Amino acid sequence: MINDPVIRNEWYPVAMASSVNAGIERQTMLLGEPIRVYKGAQGPAVVAADGSVLAVKVAYGHVWASFGKPAKLFEIPEADQPGRRLVDVGAVRVKCSPLRAVENFLDIAHFPFVHTDVLGAEPHTEVYRYQVEIREDVDEVWATKVKFYQPQAAKSAEGGIETDYLYRVAAPTCAVLYKTCPPRPEEMDVIGIFVQPLTEELCDAWPWMALFDDDSELADMIQFQQMIFLQDRSILENQLPRKLPLDPGLEIPTRADMTSIAYRRWLKKRGFTYGAQLVAA
Question: What residue stretches are annotated with the Vanillate O-demethylase oxygenase-like C-terminal catalytic domain (predicted)?
Fold first, then answer.
């Protein structure tokens, strides 16, 4: 059992709300402990193997749970914006640290090499200078003024465009991406990755989207996003060390890693160490 209150007091995604509300029970893990997610009398409920009841919240298409006394869940205002399609993609299981999964989501440089001819393509491999900050007022990591050429930025895109990005780490195991919306250039698509830490080296990644896309079939939108995450999985499962090093001396960063560096510094400041490597192996 993890007794660290910093870790136990976080909200974590544990199931899709639609599945639980339909009466589909989920036996899973959270922080190394077996839990059961099911439809209770008052809505989704979560219990541990010892019968203890976890705190529960439903938001952004998912059931969230916590072993402790969590603060308010981060907000994504776009989830309530009229006209957006809210898409629950489902879980992608990855044999890696939950923190590695978030870090990979923040990485731009791998687009041309892992998501070739979709999110990136050679010779468009340069990561232009962008800005990263830890916003103390909301206790989040933000990367702004990010630009990258993409052959197919979204399912709705019909050709290559230079895509604008904003990256936001809203919680230790959750990140949100805002990017150019091809059908509505004045708006931004929103893609979240909510990571469920099964253990320190195994996780379920729950992608979620809030998009302006009236033309694509739901199944195609889900398949497109799952394809992206499945391409990432092979890379993540071969990374060493498996846990995310928090000491900046354990891995050599480049300019493209500015967001990762800030994320690691932020985790260390918060004292969130589940899935982290603190010293050299």
Answer: 94-269
Q: What is the C-alpha R_g of the chain?
A: 18
The sheet carrying 62-66 orders its strands as 12-16, 62-66, 55-59
Q: What is the pLDDT of residues 30-84, one digit of tens each?
A: 999 999 999 999 999 999 999 999 999 999 999 999 999 999 999 999 999 999 9
Helix crossing, 258-270 with 98-106: angle to 10°?
140
In a 3-state reduction of DSSP, which class is residue 165?
strand
Q: What region does 201 belong to: left with phi over 0, alpha with psi -120 to 50, or beta?
A: alpha
- The two structure tokens encoding residue 175: 């990140």
CA dihedral 84, 66, 193, 230 (to 10 degrees): -130
Contact 96, 209 (CB under 8 A): no
Whole-angstrom CA distances from 215 to 80, 153, 157 are: 20, 15, 11
**How many whole angstroms separate alpha carbon 113 and alpha carbon 104?**
13
